[in-house]
Amino acid sequence: MRPLSAIPLAVLAAGAAGVGYAAGYEVRSFRLRRVEVPVLPAGARPLRVLHISDLHLTPGQRKKQDWLRRLDSLDPDLVVSTGDHLAHQRAVPVVLDALGPLLDRPGVYVFGSNDYYAPMLKNPARYLWRNSDAPLSAEPLPWSDLRDGFNAAGWLDLTNTRGRLKVDDREIEFAGVDDPHLGRDRYDQVAGVLDAAADLNVGVLHAPYRRVLDRMAQDGFPLILAGHTHGGQLCVPFYGPLVTNCDLDRKRAKGLSRYSSPFADDHEPSWLHVSAGCGTSPYAPVRFACPPEATLLTLVEAG
Ligand SMILES: [Fe+2]
Fold this sequence. Notes:
six-stranded mixed sheet
């Protein structure tokens, strides 16, 4: 009888250790990933792009705030934030303070569902078998205050908008959409021929739903940046993420990949970078085999 009772005890102990590691250590084990993207014209000098996403900040998360503040030492030429900055009614000044040094640099942003609505208590296991519902009944967050703070710093709001920024003496054209996870994307408002006079054209969105990626790739954006997936958040070692929380395939849950439009076109496949983000919902503060991250993308000449 002793071996039979020992097995469930061992399983329980291993499970408790895994939860303790995921909630007590990995969720605060912030990492920087460095990725090289061969996307610039021949002869162009490298461009350093800091991609941050899914901060889900609350006022009490001091370690995350300190880590975000230190990212400025990477000396990026451009900052791209792909949404889900907030997780608390009083988080706007916290986000602006944590990003303070980075706000002095050229930057662009979009919002995600968690900028618009406060997090809700849900069964975290739902994340593993279905896409989370849009929290339409949740309490609104002060996203417009965050927008005003970003805009006052000179960051470019890409909510269903195209725009240009001068970065390191180069002209970059951007097109962004509002969060596809909430069905707020209006790609028709930004669709069309790219600005050939720009040195680079970049598509930006929060949740990487294929209906938007397909059209950005069809229009020929050589680089597309997204967040939302949390890299799967709970991953299986040697297997990877189980879900992406959208209709993107799980092998692209984080990192760099090529993305081809299913429509007929003459363009090269886009480079798609999906950030695993650096936060979680306060009601599911666990990460496993998928540490919180920011990414320094070094853009270099193609080929
Ligand atoms: Fe998120």
